[in-house]
């Protein structure tokens, strides 16, 4: 279900991005030529002429947004990183447009000032749009909707810390179905999350459960099982994430240094 939801959300994102581009473009034209803020040229191109090039601008922007990974899931993606990617995509398009205008410029051509105004407004509205979407999604997830069902493989300090982070951030929308582990008895609990069985049970669990993600949280002593687990997950097509046991690794490193 979560994959279908993500696909629908990406389509909505693309449509909203296209709408934002059009709004930014029209608003930029009015600010440049009708607001009185800027010095008026004796003659300028009409809005209809400017709008005619949107057929090239919109696909170009959407392609850049895709290249800069602006359509990836937002659950744990930082706002600053997303805003930085928006800035980079817009900057590349701005300089490309500026290059074309300078290359083919005529006295009655496109306004460089208008292009710069569009660059600034589009960045602002794009960041605003995506933050509003982020806030709406987090509110929905914190209320128990659009959950991503995951299973942890391995009981370790890394597993406990990962569970703590999920409980501290309900807006991420993660629902932990349980843990498979060999180093603790079945039924062991941590914050209500139970150990359901041994790691070998993964071959049975994967076909029977509709899991969105497998999170590998093995302790350092069990890393030899990693290759086998990854192969099973890849065979089932379930996305796999690896959480290193940093505490154990640091302890191991300290022992070697001593």
Q: State the share of residues found in helices, binned by percent.
A: 55-70%
DSSP, total strands? 6
Work out the strand percent: 5-15%
Which structural class best describes the helix and strand composition? alpha/beta
Q: Output the helix-strand order.
A: HHHHHEHEEEHEHEH
Distance between the termini: 50 Å
Q: So what's the overall shape?
A: elongated
Rg (C-alpha, Å): 25 Å
Residue stretches low in confidence (pLDDT < 50, at least 5 long) are 249-258
Reconstruct the topology from this structure:
Layout: H1 2-33, H2 47-51, H3 54-67, H4 79-103, H5 112-142, E1 148-153, H6 157-168, E2 174-180, E3 189-190, E4 193-197, H7 202-208, E5 213-216, H8 226-236, E6 239-242, H9 246-257
Parallel strand pairs: 1-2, 1-5, 2-4, 5-6
Antiparallel strand pairs: 3-4
Helix pairs in contact: 1-3, 1-5, 3-4, 4-5, 7-8
Describe the protein.
- The protein is of the alpha/beta class and 258 residues long.
- The protein is 58% helix and 11% strand.
- A six-stranded mixed β-sheet has the order 3-4-2-1-5-6.
- Helix 1 (2-33) packs across helix 3 (54-67), helix 4 packs antiparallel against helix 5 and helix 7 (202-208) runs parallel beside helix 8 (226-236).
- Mean pLDDT is 84; it is low at 249-258.
Give keywords.
single chain, 258 residues, alpha/beta, six-stranded mixed sheet, 9 helices, 6 strands, 58% helix, elongated
């Amino acid at each position: 279900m979560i994959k279908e939801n993500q696909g629908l959300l990406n389509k909505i994102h693309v449509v909203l991005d296209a709408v934002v581009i059009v709004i930014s473009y029209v608003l930029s034209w009015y600010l440049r030529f009708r607001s009185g803020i800027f010095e008026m040229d004796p003659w300028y191109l009409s809005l209809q002429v400017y709008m005619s090039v949107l057929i090239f601008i919109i696909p170009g922007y959407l392609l850049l947004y895709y290249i800069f990974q602006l359509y990836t899931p937002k659950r744990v993606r930082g706002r600053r990183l997303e805003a930085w990617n928006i800035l980079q995509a817009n900057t590349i398009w701005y300089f490309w447009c500026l290059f074309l205008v300078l290359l083919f410029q005529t006295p009655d051509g496109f306004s460089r000032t208008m292009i710069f105004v569009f660059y600034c407004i589009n960045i602002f509205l794009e960041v605003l749009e995506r933050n509003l979407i982020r806030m709406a999604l987090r509110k929905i997830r914190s209320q128990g909707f659009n959950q991503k069902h995951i299973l942890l493989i391995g009981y370790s300090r890394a597993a406990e810390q990962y569970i703590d982070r999920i409980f501290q951030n309900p807006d991420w929308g993660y629902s932990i179905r349980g843990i498979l582990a060999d180093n603790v008895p079945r039924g062991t609990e941590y914050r209500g999350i139970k150990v359901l069985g041994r790691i070998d049970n993964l071959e049975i669990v994967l076909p029977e459960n509709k899991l969105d993600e497998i999170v590998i949280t093995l302790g350092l002593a069990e890393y030899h099982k990693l290759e086998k687990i990854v192969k099973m997950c890849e065979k089932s097509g379930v996305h796999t994430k690896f959480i290193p046991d940093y505490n154990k690794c640091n302890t191991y490193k300290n022992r070697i240094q001593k």
